[in-house]
Structure formats: structure tokens, C-alpha cells
Amino acid sequence: GNVFWASKTTSTMQQWIFSEVSGSNEFYWPTESHTLSQGGGYGNGHLGIDIRATTPGVAGDKVYAFADGIVAKITTPPLNDGYGVRLHHINPYPELTGGKKQLRTQYLHFCQEPIVRKNEYVRAGQVIGYMGDSGNADGVHLHFETRVSDTEFPMDEDVYSDYNQGTVVDPMIFVGDLQ
Q1: What value does the CA radius of gyration of the chain take, rounded to a whole number of Å?
Q2: Per-residue confidence (pLDDT) for residue 176, from 0 to 100
């Protein structure tokens, strides 16, 4: 079916204004490398996947937007996440996530400030930053995380409860066949 994107209309929560977007049901692998780091898989208390740099230990690999979406938050040191980006999406495949229609992706541990800005609309495959080891990272990698929800995610959460909103899902359900 048709896929729709919704833009934010308030400063604290996404209030959807729907408009059709062609091709927005495409997912894009978030890095140049397709190699998961040692111990970087989903589960066992780890809320995403860790993807190794193309050249292990060398920062600078491009990080791509997983799907069309809006930049909801930019993270910067001294947060444990280091430099990173949080994007909000309409889930084009809710059947993969128990019918949840909202999708949020996180990209953490960039080597520098992201090249996108808050509230910017991004396309799947657009460069949003560069892989590094900022924050609480053990070596150069990208932490990639996906969460789903029946309700809208807050646009600028500043408290831990908002950060953990939604249900963490294994990102490989979306990207497994993109490897």
C-alpha cells in the first residue's frame, strides 16, 4: 500500500500531518560495513546492534539514515551516547512488529557532531554522520537501535523514561536481508 510521512506540529510531541511519500518503504543498511562487532549483537541487555568500521579501529565511515524520517534528537558528549542521532519514522511494515505503527532509530558513537540538524527531514540512505567512538564506546563502531510504539515518541526527550519509551526490537527483522 501507500506509505505516508507525518511532520511534527508541536515542540514536545509529534502530532502527525500526513502526506504521501513515494518510495519511503525502503530500508537502507546504516553503514558501509556490514560486519557486526564482537559481542555486538542484539539481546543480553544490549539494546541494538554494533556495526564495526570498514577498517577496524579507524573512524570516519559514513552513517546512513535507515529510512525516511525526521531528526528528533541530536546527542552530544558528555552523554554516554557521545555524538549521535535519533530519527522518527512511520513504520512501513507494522506486521513485522506486532502492528506497532511508530518506529524510532538511534545511531550512536559518531566521531564528530552529526551533519544533520534537529527537525530536518532525511531520506533513506542519506549520510547523517560518521562512525567513531565518542561516548561510552569500546572502540570505533556504530550502535544502531530500533524501537517501536503504538503512540508517538516525544521529539526532545530529556528524561530517562522518555529515552526508554517504546519497545526495543531486534533491528535485524528490518535489515537482515540488506546485509
Answers
A1: 15
A2: 58
